[in-house]
Structure formats: C-alpha cells, structure tokens
Batch of 3 targets.
Target 1
Amino acid sequence: MTVSLEFESKLWEMADKLRGNIQPSDYKTVILGLIFLKYISDSFEEKHSALVAEGEGFEEEQDAYVEENIFFVPAIARWDFIKKNAKQSTIGQTIDDAMIAIEKENKNLKGVLPKNFARPDLDKTKLGELIDLFSFNLGNKKAKAQDLLGRVYEYFLGKFGSSEGEFYTPPSIVKLLVGMIEPFKGRVYDPCCGSGGMFVQSQRFVEEHQGRKDEIHIFGQEYTATTWRLCKMNLAIRGIDGDLGERDADTFGNDLHKNLRADFVLANPPFNVSDYALLQDDARWKYGIPPANNANYAWIEHIISKLSPTGVAGFVLANGSMSTSTKAEAEIRKNIIEAGLVDCIIAMPPNLFYNVTIPVCLWFISTKRKNRKDKILFVDARKMGYMETRKHRELKDEEIKQIFDTYHNWRDDKAEYEDVQGFCKAANIEEVRGHEYILTPGRYVGIEEVEDDGEPFDEKMTRLTGELGEMFVKSHKLEDEIRQRLGAIGYEL
C-alpha cells in the first residue's frame, strides 16, 4: 500500500478545516500530536497481537515492548478506543487523557505530548471526522518499511511550513547539507533544531549508505517550546535517541551543551535576528564580538566553537552574511578566513523557503582542512531548481548531486574536479584577500560561457535591429489606438 499525494492532500484539506480560530502554534501540535498517537498505537497493536498469539501472557508487560523500541500504549490511549469515542462530545478530553496516560508509561515523553484537545475552540465534530480519516496503518512493519509515517509527517510539516515556516527547513536544502558533510558516524549537533529535519535526514543518509544509525549521536537545542515538543515527537516516532536538553532554551543565553564538541554541525539559524542574548565576554567570540543588532555572525562563531578538532559544519544563512561590510562582521569574516576555517560557500536560488523569498547561501566550515587551508570552493547555484508552485522553488535530485559531487571531488583532491566558469571555482586565499574577504560566489566563478550559435555578428545585429524596429512600429500603433479610445470617452493625452 502506498499513500498517494492525492490522499495526503485530502488529509491536509480535512485537517485544515479543523483550524477554526486556533492559533497556528497550537493547531500544528494538535494535528501532529494526533499523527503521533496513531503511529505509536499502530506499532503497539501489531506487537500486542503477536504476543497474544504466543500465548505467554506478556501482552500487557511494558518490558516486552520497550526492548523492541516500541512505546507501551495503555488501553485508554489505543486507537480502537479513541475511534469508538470519536463521535462523542467528550472526544477532546478522551485524547487528552490518552496523552497523559502515554506520558505516565513512557518517561522520555514526559511534558512532550500536546494535551489541548478538550479546549472549547476546537470543533469536536471535525475532530471526530479527522480521527475517522486516519484509518490507514502508520506504524506496523509494512508501513514502517514504506515510511508512510515519514511521508505523512513530512507532508504536514511542509504544509505548516508554507503557512508559517519559522521552524521548517525545505527538504532539498537539508538533503544538500547532509550530502555535503556526510555524517556517517559521530556526534551530530543542531543549535536551532526546529522540528528535527536535520536529524531525520542524517539518519536516512546513514541508512542509505549501509551505515548503522546507532553510530550517530544526536544533540540539539530549540528556543520555542511547541517546536521543541514537535522535535521530540519527530525523533521518537523515528526511533532516534537524541539529547535535546530538559526543555526549550535560548542557545546564546543558556547553552545546554556547553562541553559538546561535535563531529558534524547542521543548522538553519533564524535570519538576521536583531535581539538576542549577546554576552560580551563569551568564550565563543574567539574571532571577534558580533554586533548586537544581528545574530548571523554570533551563530557562525557559536557553530565553530562546537566543532571537534576534525569537525565539519554546514549551515544556512542570509546572503548578506557573505558580503556585509559592518565593521564587527567584516572583521570576524576576515579572521575565520585567515584561520583557514571556511571550506565552501554556495549561493542558492530564491524562493526555496515557503514563507520568505529571500535568497540564501550555504556555509561550510571545517577544522580539518590541512590539504586545502589556502583555498575556498565557491559554487554558484542561483540558476538551479524549478518553480514547483508560483511561489516555491525546488531543487532537482540531480542538481543536488551535482553540487555535492563537485564539493567531494574538490575536497578529496580527485582528478574529476575542475573549475567550471559560471558554476564553481576553487579560489586561493590571495584572491579572496583581493576581494576584501567578500565571499559572494559570483565574484569568483565568473559568468557562464554562452555557446556560440554560429551566426555571424553582423548578420545577428541586422536581424535583431530589424526585430526591434518591428516592435517599435507595433508599439506606436498601440499608442495611437489607446489615444483614440481615451479621446472617444472624453479623455485626451
């Protein structure tokens, strides 16, 4: 069985009707909380049936589930019980009670699950209809093999991203970041982890390359309470064990992982934050004190401070970070370049994010650049991608592969790497100094060569000027016609 995009969109359409006057931050936890409840109930029921068939009487023993990384679901939280009560006016309280019971039985979920289904502004009739819609199996072995839960969950996160977007990094960017730094084994850290997309994609990368997911260790921090809970749920349903701290917290003002040195850092920090906890004497500001009115360079220095001696980081920033001339930021940029930390810069096309059109860039920082400390790879990907909708752009898989293959060939000093005018350039440090440490790829890669069409210059100019003359004639005719029509109704130009 495969959940089609059509079905997912119908599911979203129904869920969207439930919104009413609920705040978006509460609404998304209601919907994704319901998906979470359905998933763990399906996983539990499959194991429960197997234990009943064995006839040993262990079907209500919690240890029989925990040892297989399955959440124990009490009777009042099982989907059959929820569905039987779906048409009752008390269905909201029934779900809240279910969430409380699950947290009581599974300590690692304490304080994580949403318990706001009984609220008066949540339409209980629509809630019951939505429960009926969740009739497909999300958590049995067959569904897990096809990652139905992942597809539905990511589809919903994407849709929430298109309406809010403050915590959702588009999958194509996440896939590119992960493909670039290749987190096979070690500690993976995200200082602003949102709903956990970087972690999920890291695990997927490891599995696709025949690695062991238990060989990557997840560390994260998230400032917004509802998003922190979403991340906890997202990791839980994937079976990913991650340290996100005891609760939500501000990375700058309350670093929950002070002693962490990560092998990999993946991040999409909030752009151009103008109000953050800037501590002047913070040890993280090794390369200069970032300005108080923009956190971009505070994020860069925080990320560098978290890298192990052989660590690598990939993160998203606003384009202004590559060329800002603000004294403090320019000085920090110069210092980290001279320290040999900047590995690669990629200029991305606009419209990749759901809620902003601002073009972004990807930074790659590495502390293990012994053979390439005097070079930086620049990639101009601004022309890549296609408009999936009128407002949203997606990158193609082959474009993503082209970018990280280019980086890997350069990084590993393979013969396959070569500069491509208009696309990529391995610039030496002297050239970067000559551009006053500005890191905009367009300054280095040049303009893409246009293939000669074979038409002689004089003939081409004669043809083009002829076409332009015809356009001028047409424009004059249109102008005369407009003047006549305006004159006919009493308006003269």
Target 2
Amino acid sequence: MKSKMRMTQVLEVIDLSPHMRRIVLKGNDLIDFPQGMESAHVKVILPQPGQEKPKLGKYPGFEKWMRSYTIRCFDPIEKTLKIDFAVNDHSGLATNWATNASVGDYLGIAGPGDIKYTQYDADWHLIIGDLTALPAIVTTIEKLPADACGYVLAQIPTEQDMQIVKTPKNLEIKWVVNADLTKNMLLETVQKLKWLKGEPAVFIASETQKMKSIRKYVALQPGFERELMYASAYWKSK
C-alpha cells in the first residue's frame, strides 16, 4: 500500500440496494490520484470519536482508524472517487460511518494498493465472494474481455441486492441469496459447478473461515494453479 494520504468530502450518498450504499467522494487532494485502479483497494481513514475530520499521517495507533475498501470508480476530470459500502447487515467502524454518512462529511483516503486480479486472459474465470466483496466482484467483471468465460458466485442477503452487471456472454453469474451467515452457501454452490477445462483464474473473498473452506476445495480441482488464485479474508465472524 502506497502511503500517500488524502482528505476528501462526501459529495453524494446513493443507496444501490438495501445492503449496499455508494459514497461519492470529492476533493482537491484527488488531483494526482492514479487512474485505471478500479478493483484495487484504498484504505479509508475514519474520524475518531468527537472529531469532524480524520487525522491523517502515521502516529501510534493510526491503523486502528483505517479499513480496506475497493475503488469502484475514479473520475480524474471531476476528481471524484466512488466507494461502495456493505451496510445494514453488520456493524463496524467503517460500516457505521457509511450508514450515517451525509454530504460534507470528511473521509481520509490512503493508497491505492495494487490490482490483485490481473489474469484477464485465463482459460476461464471463477469469481466468488459475499456481500462485502460485491464491489470488487462487479469491478473485476467490468475489466474482463468480451470472450471471457466461467462463473461468478455472488452471495447477497436478499434478491433486492442483485445488481445489473454487464457481463461477457459466456460468464455466468449465480446470485446466492443467503441471509444466514452461519451457512457456507458459497461453498455448497461451488461444489455443484460443472468444472470447465483448462486453468482457471480464481478470486475468492469472504469471511475468513468460509473463504478458507472454499479455497481448500478449489485447490483440489483439475487445472488449479496457485499462482492464478487470489484469496482474501474480507472479515472475520465473532
């Protein structure tokens, strides 16, 4: 993660679905924000209790006020950065901030980090994630070539959380509707897939233990190559 920190303010708040809220950020500090980094992550820097603005810079305990989020879209002309937050199904420092965010609120941004999923020319694609990974999933799909094939398994709490995504013709999206986070329905769904020929590029992002179970299963399948897999724990159940 590159260390540059920037101050931004909320320009707009958009509720995409019952459990996904888009925050549009704007600020002069974004004037040199790198282009083409959609699907990479930034660290959002949250205000501390009683503060209007987050404290930027490195100081003892500064990482406590940072969380990782996907870059959904950046407009270098308007200097606006869009970040989608999962809301209304769990609580946390960043989630609570996003739930209560309003125009004019301040948010710090650090980064961006590197783009993790870059094997766009793989034989086929297997993209798996829960609600917290949905922004990364959608942004990754948008980067795939028109002839990409494979599967996308996206877990959401309700049918109303489905998003309209422009998808390559041979890339099948399976919306896994599951409000019971104790169940690993993503694993159950991937186990029912018809495995395609060739070496898949794999993206897995969800709760820690569920991600590990999915990763273990996928690693045993034909054509699996570890260097073509990105697997990340986006959150940890209590």
Target 3
Amino acid sequence: MKAVVKVGGFAFPGRGEDLVSDYVKMFRERVGEDHILVVAGGGEIARLYIKAARKMGVPESLCDHIGILVSRLNARLLVDGLSEYAFPEIPVNIDELKHYFSSGKIVAMGGLTPGHSTNAVAAIAAETIDADLFINATDVEGVYTSDPSKDKTAQKLDEVSVGRLGEILSKVEISAGAYELMDPLALRIIQRSEIPTVILDGRSTSNVVKALQGGKVGTRLTHG
C-alpha cells in the first residue's frame, strides 16, 4: 500500500525527541508491507525561529521559508535514522518527490512552498503518488466538535466530512507556524481527489500502524 504519513512537529527535538526513534523503528518495520512517504512538520523549533523573525519585522512569506527549512531538517533526521531504508535526499519540489518515490525506498520530506502548510504538502504528496491512505499523525486523538482543551463538552468524532471539518476549523489562525490539524488548502486537495484520510494521535506509533492495517483509529474523513 502506498501511504503518506504526516508526522507533526511534536515528534521532533524541542518537545519529543524520543518519538523520532519510535517513528524510525516503526517505519523500518513497515518496509515490505507499505511504501511510505513521510512529511515532517516544523514543530516547536520552527515556531521559535518564526517568532524571532517576526520580532525583526520579517515578512510572513520569509517566516514560512524559515519553517520550511526547519521541517526539512526534521526530515533529514528521519532519513539519517532510516539509513539504507530511505532515499538519501530530501525532495524540494514535486518532480523530485515523484522521482525519489519511484526508487521504492521510504521518502522523507518537509515543506515545499511558502504559504503551504506541511499538512497541505502532505495532501499534495498523497495526490501526486496516488496514495491509498493519508495519515495525519497529530498530538490529539482525532477531530473534536470543538477545542477539547477549552470545551469540556467537546466530543471526538469517529468520522467527519471534509466540509464539516472545514467549518470546525474555520476560526483557526492561518499564519506561519500556526496551522492546526488541517488547513483549507489541504482540505480542498483531499476533497478534490477523494484521498482516504485519517487524523489520529501520533504520540503512539501503534496508532499509525493500526491505520495502515485498516483498523479503526482516530477520525476518518469522508467526502460526501
């Protein structure tokens, strides 16, 4: 199965160093079972750099570029950890993405273009390789009816339509380093190509494995 796994920044140095090793181990174990493309988020380090840049009056597009560079560094960490199981280079455009993926090895990448979150990049990657599954591994259990950290009545959804998720996330800030779960561009790409998508708690790699094996976990997006 061809799968794109977006690994959120929570898994990388600055907040969750141990999780990087967990993901490398899990991806190694999936070799021969799935052909995986991993998109790394920028995480806390990216946010710190972006915050410093904003203080200096750096334009948002350049702040985005800083976040892209950090996400590529996170992808490099995965590539080096995976060693011979990964393609040795980080793709920086769609042509390279296709070429590297055709090698049959695991491909790890970060951001591509300012203004595109790594969630959108992951959706574009899934569309490009005609993925059988797009997994967004986050630091929450899935999609809730509202922010569970602020609303005690928030309920987790086992399934949600792309349109409904867009409504739930409509008040989320869209700026460099501030993307949550999915952004409008990612949702449009998922909808137009009807990409099978699961949003799940990536703090345990067993959840990712369960999704790859077709199990019920997190929140599945529907296209109705």
